[in-house]
Design a protein that fits this description.
Blueprint (H helix, E strand, L loop, with lengths): L2 H11 L4 E6 L4 H8 L1 H4 L3 E8 L2 H4 L8 H32 L4 E4 L16 H7 L4 E2 L5 E2 L7 E8 L19 H5 L22 H10 L8 H5 L1 H4 L4
Antiparallel strand pairs: 1-2, 2-6, 3-6, 4-5
Helix pairs in contact: 1-5
């Protein structure tokens, strides 16, 4: 079994719903600007995703109820992130055991408070691996589950084959995620490669809302409302 197939099997066996390999060569400058030279030195990214349970996301319009908010934060965020971190560790160990380098990027750990970002963009890897496109909510939208997926990345120099190419945006004239945002964080501007995130999304508004509202730091309405997630449940 070649390494691509071996890693995919491990990922699926450990509960991943999405597995893909992204070629980062055309995004090197962006990766370097966000995470530095060491992060940008890896030519490939393995993108792994786990779907959030629809039963939890569909309760978000009632997130003012503590039981709903706690369940979403716990099972829709904390537990899935732990599963993703474990999965990335397993994949990284397998790559290392095959004689190559791997750098697992934590599922949800910020390293830059000013820019409100991680050391590497999981959405970028998922986009370049062919999992979906960047929507007006600045989330990765998949054809299978919309934005109802959490992501993690393993950077590597292993000789893997890229599994796909970035998908074209399919949001069209839809602005449901823009309209439902309680603090108008999204401008509704479609994603364009090379443009700064601030053109589409004011992350500081989101941040302030989550830490000042008495809703147990839960929102997720843009995850809930996207038609690509609501209309394709399994």
């Amino acid at each position: 079994m070649d390494l691509n197939k071996k890693l995919r099997k491990i990922a699926i066996d450990e509960g991943a719903d999405f597995f893909g390999v992204a070629d980062l060569s055309n995004a090197r400058d962006f990766v370097k600007e966000q995470g530095g030279e060491a992060v940008a030195s890896y030519p490939l990214a393995i993108s792994l995703g786990i779907r959030i349970m629809n039963s939890i996301v569909d309760q978000l319009p009632h997130r003012e109820e503590r039981s709903v908010a706690v369940n979403y934060h716990h099972h829709g965020y904390t537990i899935i992130n732990r599963r993703l971190d474990y999965l990335a560790s397993r994949i990284s160990s397998q790559i290392q055991n095959n004689g190559y380098s791997a750098l697992p990027i934590p599922a949800s750990e910020r390293y830059d408070d000013e820019r409100i970002c991680a050391v590497f963009s999981h959405k970028l890897a998922a986009h370049l691996a062919g999992h979906g496109w960047i929507g007006k909510s600045c989330m990765l939208i998949t054809p299978e589950a919309g934005p109802r997926v959490r992501w993690i990345t393993v950077l590597t120099d292993a000789p893997l084959s890229a599994t796909g190419t970035s998908q074209d945006e399919k949001c069209g004239d839809c602005t449901e995620c823009v309209d439902i945002c309680p603090v108008s964080s999204f401008t509704g501007t479609p994603f364009k490669e090379g443009e700064p995130r601030d053109i589409r999304y004011d992350a500081s508004r989101c941040e302030k809302y989550l830490h000042e509202e008495a809703e147990w730091e839960v929102c997720g309405l843009c995850v809930y409302i996207c038609p690509h997630g609501r209309n394709k449940k399994k």
